[in-house]
Amino acid sequence: MDPDENQEPQIPKPSRIHISSFLSIFNFSILILFIAISFSIIAKTPSFRNYLPKPTISPYPNLFQNLLNFLRFTPMAKQNEFTEPPYCVLWMAPFLSGGGYSSEAWSYISALNNYIKKQMNPVFKLSIEHHGDQENVEFWEGLPLEMRNLAIQFHQTECRLNSTIVICHSEPGAWYPPLFQTLPCPPTGYGKYKIVIGRTMFETDRVNVEHVRRCNRMDQVWVPTDFHVDTFIQSGFDPMKVRKIVQPVDLEFFDPSKVKPLDLASVGSSLVLGSDNLNSKNRFVFLSIFKWEYRKGWDVLLRSYLKEFSAADNVALYMLTNAYHSDRDFGNKIVEYVKDSDLEEPVNVWAPIYVVGDHIAQVDLPRLYMAANAFVLPSRGEGWGRPIVEAMAMSLPVITTNWSGPTEYLTDENSYPLSFEGMSEVKEGPFKGHLWAEPSVDKLQLLMRHVMSDPDEAKHKGLQARVDMMRRFSPEIVGEDIINLLQLILENLD
Ligand SMILES: *[C@@H]1O[C@H](CO)[C@@H](O)[C@H](O)[C@H]1NC(C)=O
Ligand SMILES: *[C@@H]1O[C@H](CO)[C@@H](O)[C@H](O)[C@H]1NC(C)=O
């Protein structure tokens, strides 16, 4: 699982794809999808059979069997001339990466699917393609079967270029011509499609020149928050082309009334710092979920937590994190950080910090949230903040930085917005020089202590959080927004 947003894709290792020598499952499944897309766009009668290797060579039979069984045994539905929708929506996103764009894309296509199913004469059909990031087999295998079948079905839809609306749902570096190895979006460049739309976001106070240029080549760009509307326009993006479409959260899946808490001792959590009395009944558990990068403010989290609490406080901090251009030895990184810092161990010993070691399958994620008393993420900047919204859907009180994407949904009534000490500069990487928020260590200390000591208020905010998620970010509501936008576009086409 990749629990976090995934704005910057993992750059695939440059490796040529040869039909006879599959280096890895990734290359192979990308190949299958590439072949499929090339055929579905260029040819009328695709034939995949010649390209299929023996399924027995695969260590991951589920992915293959699903793809192959479908490709082999399910005939393409014959389209009736009269009911053939005049338009096609080709949604290109990192469907198989499991990141933030990926989960967004899945919810959008299920919304579109629900809509199409209800129409007598749908005005468009839907086609999808994986693009913009690497595939993650664990993620694909963790998806419900009906989602996988839906994906394979949409993947088979044929589109004529000149009646297709292409949605490029990824970071602009993946758009045509891509800056790294990925299927370009739109696949054959601009000018050949009815309309081309970008869906993207960013986590700092601006968008770089190259990305703005790429956004301006699109007919429209959909961003998730008012923060992005402002920062994109301020960076030079055409204000006439910007639309806001928020990100939905699956409220049936993330439903606290449906799940029992995960046993935190069972998920390979290792105690990396401090000592803990696991048997204590009323232990207060803070949960944080993020990709291991400086942007996420894990340093701020460690400082605040370790300064405020000791082992005598009956608290625990659980971190579910995954690698981002780094190795996976998070325990050591935490210990090193603390050793090199000016933090002093309290007489009562450090408060316990755990790193969740196991891969948590998507289906178990709600139970992980259930096992916590509060969610905390002192991030410096977020595109949307998917784990924050999931925690809110699970009625957890959340403490998170009151800047960037999350300002779209944080209020004093539904959360503990963390104020920040002004802005700081991004110090490395391609976005060096941009600004983001510098969350306050002191204020985070106060809020963490506060959420523990006022459980009634915390509970109330958690309940309000779910109410607000249902009111604004349910897949139905966001799906309707997308349909309305698409309809508006289609009405103005000819
Ligand atoms: C789209 O292209 C097809 C041929 O590929 C052509 O028959 C059709 O008239 C075109 N439609 C439009 C609206 O240009
Ligand atoms: C959070 O930020 C918004 C502006 O984006 C501001 O109106 C609000 O007062 C802030 N809330 C807190 C608790 O600081």
Written account of the structure:
The chain is of the alpha/beta class and 494 residues long. The protein has two domains: 25-61 and 84-248 and 476-491, Rossmann fold (3-Layer(aba) Sandwich), CATH 3.40.50; 264-472, Glycogen Phosphorylase B (Rossmann fold, 3-Layer(aba) Sandwich), CATH 3.40.50. It has helices at 25-42, 61-73, 100-118, 137-142, 145-155, 209-217, 226-234, 298-308, 330-340, 365-370, 386-393, 441-453, 455-472, 475-491, and strands spanning 87-93, 124-130, 164-169, 195-199, 220-223, 242-244, 269-273, 284-291, 315-322, 353-356, 374-377, 398-401, 416-418, 420-425, 435-439. The strands form three sheets. It has a seven-stranded mixed sheet with strand order 7-10-9-8-11-12-13, sandwiched between helices. 44% of the residues are buried. Bound molecules: 2-acetamido-2-deoxy-beta-D-glucopyranose (2 copies). This is Mannosylfructose-phosphate synthase. The chain crosses the membrane at residues 21-43. It is an enzyme of class 2 (transferase).
Throw out a few tags for this protein:
disordered N terminus; mannosylfructose-phosphate synthase activity; 14 helices; 494 residues; globular; binds 2-acetamido-2-deoxy-beta-D-glucopyranose; 2 domains; 6-stranded parallel sheet; Rossmann fold; 7-stranded mixed sheet; alpha/beta
